Every structure is written in structure tokens, then in C-alpha cells.
Amino acid sequence: MSFDFETPGKRFKVLVNHEEQYSLWPADLDVPGGWEETGVCASKEECDKYLEETWTDMRPKSLRLALDGEQ
């Protein structure tokens, strides 16, 4: 399945999974299993800005915890 991320005016949801990894998802589609909405629904540019500010550590949560000795 592919999505057009470049159409002007297209809106997206920012999703997050249990590993605190994020994804852009077309706003008009149902959220897939294993993902939750963050409450952000905006243009791609606005979603990208949110991700740049929020997702500062790309490592999955379980890896961060294991490396920090908090498992």
C-alpha cells in the first residue's frame, strides 16, 4: 500500500506505538492495530515539525531502557 504524501491540503495523523516510535498516517484512514493517535492531525509540514520536536531519540523504548539499565 502506498500513500501520496505530497498532495497539497492532505491531512495526516501522527501515530505512536508501544515502543514510542512515530508514524504519519493519512487522516481519512482508520488507525492500524498497534498504533494510537497522538492527537496531532495536520498538514504534512506541521506533522513533520511536531515529529522533529517530539521524537528526539529514534531508538525503540525497549532498547533505550535496556541500554540505560532500567529493564
Commentary on this structure:
With 71 residues, the chain is of the alpha+beta class. Strand 1 and strand 2 form a beta hairpin. Helices cover 25% and strands 30% of the residues. The protein has a single domain (11-67), classed as Rubredoxin-like (Alpha-Beta Complex). This is MbtH family NRPS accessory protein.
Essential attributes:
alpha+beta, 30% strand, three-stranded antiparallel sheet, elongated
Briefly summarize what is shown.
With 71 residues, the protein is an alpha+beta fold.
CA distance, first residue to last residue: 36 Å
Question: How would the global form be characterised?
Answer: elongated
Structural class from helices and strands? alpha+beta
Largest sheet data: 3 strands, antiparallel
Q: In angstroms, what is the radius of gyration?
A: 14 Å
How is the topology of this model organized?
Elements (H helix, E strand, L loop, with lengths): L10 E7 L4 E5 L8 E9 H11 L6 H7 L4
Pfam families: MbtH (PF03621)
Protein name: MbtH family NRPS accessory protein
